[in-house]
Amino acid sequence: MAKAKKTKTRKKKVVRAVSAAHPMESETYTAKDIYVLEGLEPVRKRPGMYIGSTGPDGLHHLIWECVDNSLDEAMAGYAKNIDVALLKGNRVRTTDDGRGIPVEIHPQTKKSALETVMTTLHAGAKFGSKAYQVAGGLHGVGVSVVCALSRWMRAEVCRQGFRYAQEYEKGKVKSKVQKLGPCRGSGTSVTFEPDQGIFKDIAFELKRILNHLRQQAYLTRGVRVNVSDERGDEKLTYGFYFEGGLRSYVKYLTKGTTRRHPHVFYYSGEKEGIMVEAAFQYTEEVEGYEEAFANNIFTQEGGTHLTGFRVALTRGFNDYARKNSFLKEAEDNLSGEDVREGLVGAVSVKIRDPQFEGQTKAKLGNIEAKAAVEAVVIEGLSDFLERNPNDASAIIDKCLLSAKARKAAKAARETVLRKGILDGLSLPGKLADCISRNPEESELYIVEGPSAGGSAKGGRDRRFQAILPLRGKILNVERARLDRMLDSKEIKALIIALGAAIAQDFNMEKLRYHRIIIMCDADSDGNHIKTLLLTFFYRYFKPLIEKGYLYIAQPPLYRIQVGKEVRYAYVEEQKEKIVAELRKSKINSKSEIQNFETKDETEISEESVGETKIAGINIQRYKGLGEMNPEQLWETTMNPENRVLKQVNFEDARQADRIFDILMGDEVFPRKKFILAYAQKVKNLDII
Questions:
Q1: What's the whole-model pTM score?
Q2: Active site annotation includes 523
Q3: How far apart, in whole angstroms, are the C-alpha atoms of residue 677 and residue 604?
Q4: Is residue 525 among the annotated active site residues?
Q5: Within 13 A of 55's CA, how many CA atoms are on the CB side?
Q6: 532-549 per-position pLDDT tens digit
Q7: 513 and 610 housed in the same domain
Q8: Would 6 be classed as within a structural domain?
Q9: Does the annotation mark 383 as catalytic?
């Protein structure tokens, strides 16, 4: 207490000293400097607080907010059809056949209810009225945020036999509510155009919208969701309608995989006023995948409902396995990790007062949701396993296999880590480490082959660039468990070089480099090695990708030289442009006109020596990094001032996961089907 008091006294003295030295300073901070943001101004000042970002995610979040209101009407039992249209001029229209937003004068704001909803934060029928038992857009800022961030917006309501409309501009009303005339039925239509002053790149992605709305259609049984894209010359239309709910959704998620058992588990029930739905099915994959929803909102970071789902499965399978003598010793219990291997599941709760973390609703925080989900799923799982003994046996066998592999992997992992500790964290001999020990400025180049490794070591900046050459192609980790994977010398060297362990032992704070750069030859072998490394990082170092630490180097494809002038091209189009510029330059050069016009164009076979000569322009096609000397490799691919790096990221983790399964997994047929489907779109394919 005395220490705190002393600190407070010292602070007062400093304030007096400043005031005495600067008698006018207090006048620069007065009441007029306090700004009060009215209406929707806070949204325009700090849009990221309400929609997460002003990039593609935030842009599409505007559509989700409008659709959420329509889905709330559907969950309340009033809407059966929801339409989303992408229009020309960056406009989007969402329509439903619900009750329609009220238009009468609001007693508190003295404005129409429609204007109040569209232009006032935290205004809606979801905070305590009986209009909605459950709702996704609970914060009440959804559609008003869309209004604030739109250059133009129009709302139309069909209600009690008449159509009403009102227009808005950047969150402000342009006109009063207009009564347009009679109409049939009821519903609400919102059309908006995002403000380019807020969103620098307005490009709505049809695929992203379809994926999101398909998901919502699965979660809202019996509701038809239509999507149309009217931006091009030809109108594209799509429709989603599912009666099976989460059961159908799990079938969709497991499409293209080998299912471990034939029947999809599905159960629904109510506990303490919380409606719970859950479904799952096991596949032969090693990776598991779960999705959780609260009032139809996809909670990307999970929450208490997902925790309850996981606890119920672990407890339920352990009880069944022990009861039926699959497990004998108490210490042989299946872990949550064992139970989730190969699991594809979804859980959805409908809760009256959901507590989300943040406006983007990434995580559910209601404690009561965990208990409700756990109770309902345990009840349904017990019944499912008793009625389907073959399914139960197939699932338990997979869980036991996972437990066995987990123990073997743990032993192998500890061996690798223990070896590193016993050697004083000695790094692999092939690693040419950098001088810096600051991860933020250090970068690791993973290079294909000793030849390229030699050039890279000779050309690098030793202060911050480390080089790890790999011999040949690493193990395909998509087809191997962790214990077998850790037997690979190349993978073991890579793990020790990174310094952050692996799998559940992975510790981001111990990562030795914050830029990990894959640098491979620009041929089919190089692309294969690149894919194997991406698979490795995606499966076992996913947080590293999420942080944006993984990159792919882009070495040049061509070296183009005329006289002493040397230029590099990284793509085919760039080469053509450079050649055209150089030819034009030669024609315009008086000293070379005669020579240029009389010289025949000769070409030397690219396959024989990798070089082409056209009218005195030497064009060298690089097949491998080893063809470059250290100076060239530094100048084109490693110098931070000149190099081109592609940052690896994944916007849709599930889609990325599915692609890795198809291209790198054991099943041949899905891969063959994928190749046939995309064969016509392949570019730069090496023929061997």
A1: 0.67
A2: yes
A3: 36
A4: yes
A5: 4
A6: 888 888 888 989 998 999
A7: no
A8: no
A9: no
